[in-house]
Amino acid sequence: MASIKQRAGWCAIAVTMVGGFEGLRLAAYADPVGIPTICFGETKGVRLGQRATPAQCQAMLADSLAIANRAVDACIRAPLGDYRRAALVSFAYNVGQENLCGSTLARKMNAGDALGACNEFPRWNRAKGIVLPGLTRRRATEQAMCLGALP
């Protein structure tokens, strides 16, 4: 179990990273592939025309990051430093636990191939089969954070 100080490290990185890539939108909008989205990339139960306050968005972000962190805990058995965990939490926030757990990235990380795992991030730059520049940038940042954490 990580200490509060340890959790604060990766969490601060993940909040900044996810918030930066997702951006804050108080009114629901259709994302690049048509999925109704609000706040910091929230999609569950969102409908166009919906509005949220900044405080509601912050609460959603905190809840979703906690879910993403639990996904990382469920899928990754390898030890993770703050930057690698933040990269994986950002990834899980975006693709979900099922995709993380079933990925070659997770398989390689759990096999002790951190370099190979980190090099899997760029493969996840599509939504509904469409390459998205924003996802390409996000995956490059996640990859760099993961690689920077290599011994």
From TrEMBL:
E.C. designation(s): 3.2.1.17
Reactions this protein catalyses: Hydrolysis of (1->4)-beta-linkages between N-acetylmuramic acid and N-acetyl-D-glucosamine residues in a peptidoglycan and between N-acetyl-D-glucosamine residues in chitodextrins
CDD domains: endolysin_R21-like
Keywords from the UniProt entry: Antimicrobial, Bacteriolytic enzyme, Glycosidase, Hydrolase
Record-linked InterPro entries: Bacteriophage_GH24, Endolysin_T4_type, Glyco_hydro_24, Lysozyme-like_dom_sf, Lysozyme_dom_sf, SAR_endolysin-like
GO MF annotation, one: hydrolase activity
Chain segments annotated as transmembrane: none
PANTHER family: LYSOZYME RRRD-RELATED, PTHR38107
Family affiliation: Belongs to the glycosyl hydrolase 24 family.
Protein's name according to its UniProt entry: Lysozyme
Lineage: Bacteria, Pseudomonadati, Pseudomonadota, Betaproteobacteria, Burkholderiales
